[in-house]
Amino acid sequence: MRYITFRMLLLSMAIICSCTNQGTENREGSANRVNHPYQTDSILLRPTKFHPEIVSTKLDKYNTSFSPDGNTMYYTVTSQKLGVTGIAFQKFENGNFGRPEFVPFVSADSPMTDVQISPNGDLMLFSTFMDYEGKPEGFNFNIWTSELKNGEWQRPSPLGYPISSTGNEFYPMMINDQSIYFCSDKEGNSDIYKSRLENGKYQPPIRLPDNINSDGREADAFVSRDESYMIFVRVDEPDGFGNSDLYISFRINENEWTDPVNMGKEVNSGQIDGSPYVTSDEKYLIFTSNRASDDIKKRAIKSYRDFESISSSSDNGSLNFYIVSFNLKKYKNDVFANN
Predict the structure, then answer these.
(1) CB 183 within 8 A of CB 191
(2) Neighbours of 31 (CB within 10 A)
(3) CATH number, domain at 47?
(4) Which domain holds residue 256?
(5) CA nearest 167: which of 8, 1, 274?
(6) pLDDT value at residue 2
């Protein structure tokens, strides 16, 4: 199932209810995380599941963001059966992640997705279809924000015009100068846009150039805080490995980027890969995937107990989080060698 379609299916199920294969854990050494949620004592040569059965579980989860100190992880969690899609977080304390909790404004009536935390940690950005005065006509997801005051996330408000449109806006990413990158299908296709903040107001969004926004579908752009590079999703590309793949591009000037390069089989799988996030130390890439080991079906039918156990674990094919070491210098060399 295509990545964008999958997200919209999950969200559609939530709206309806509220209104009425390949190996993954190849690494060098053991990933022993001591007093830090993602730093390890090893080089992760291949994507490995991120805190299995603690953060990555049997539930569908996607989209990653961390607080500036790295000790709180935010993400989207969804249940088609319950018709709920909301923003959750987990705090890392005393060497372990605590139990997940919802942010205070999660609603049973309005799915909320694609959470991102601003560079200074004081603003949460996300996408939802909640109504507001002046909202563009039609059914559409728009970008909203919530401020952090006295340690509590406040009642959210829409960014509104000129970012909101009659289409859907997803995956908002704020960089150091408070410009926002996001994806929108307002022109009929999913493309990546940028809106710059000038004199306290966001300017009309600029669509990224054609070498980034192809005739296909692009989404989920993680843009580095200094705007020097971008990792994003392309769907059903001829050079892709699965339904959706991660690509990387480097910024040349104001609105010019290198031709993107597929991040390769070291990252991408034969299934869904998306929602990229690079940690603040730029050593790790965390992303979403529903990949599974080659023998998972055979293992599941050895006995009913095995079937039940696997179905109730993070190995059940759900969307979950994977982490891999990120060599920015290598990718930069590879990209410029192909441009």
Answers:
(1) yes
(2) 19
(3) 2.120.10
(4) 3-337
(5) 8
(6) 43
